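Suppose you are handed only these lines of text.
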Amino acid sequence: MFMLNNVVFRDILHIDKLEIPDRKVICLFGESGSGKSTLLKMLNGLLTHDHGEILFQNQSILEYNPIELRRKVVMLGQDPIMFEGTVRDNLLIGLDFSERERVEDAKLLNLLKELELSKSLDDEADKLSGGEKQRVAFARILLMDAVIYLLDEPTSALDEGTEHKVMDFMIHRVQQDQLTAIFVTHSKEVAEQYADQIIYMEDINKKEVISS
Ligand SMILES: Nc1ncnc2c1ncn2[C@@H]1O[C@H](COP(=O)(O)OP(=O)(O)OP(=O)(O)O)[C@@H](O)[C@H]1O
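From them, the structure of the protein bound to adenosine-5'-triphosphate can be written out as follows.
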């Protein structure tokens, strides 16, 4: 799915070789500042590597139209972004931006229920708690029907019980629809419980080679 060869980004990342398989749940694990978010951002073209190559489905990601790439590879960032308006507006905004058909309230409510969020679609999004915003942002990208989900600490604001329910739902969705998820967590337990494969940043990032 993704193949990285000799990829360098500033003095932050230097990855000699990395293959990320498709249709799997992959966890990126490593200490704070080890480059996990930076790597995710490079996989959907939010950041561009300085050297080397990143192939997505056997084609350099530099050759993709960025909008097309981000339709296939969606990212949930660490800080959930809420736009002015209701929960419904915030769920549908991705579909609106990409000029796709809106979905019915029933589907939105079902998705919120799966994510353990009992809020009205008419509630103001900016009044939600941090954990509620995180789940609305999560639901927003799940509606995008992408093939790869890049999830940067998707459950960091959730209590343990809710975290497990949200992760269970995500895993079920990935397996059912044969998707790929690459997620970052600081919890070893969550990484080991949910990932098919754990990529340890200390194993792949040789940044000291270029910064020394
Ligand atoms: N665009 C950028 N330009 C320069 N430095 C950056 C940029 N983005 C991140 N950094 C730096 O790169 C390093 C890696 O940051 P990154 O956010 O990728 O780490 P992380 O592993 O995701 O950390 P955390 O677990 O704390 O979220 C940090 O030292 C950060 O300050």
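What can we learn from it? The pocket of adenosine-5'-triphosphate is lined by residues 10, 12, 30, 32-38 (CB under 6 Å). The chain has a mean pLDDT of 94.
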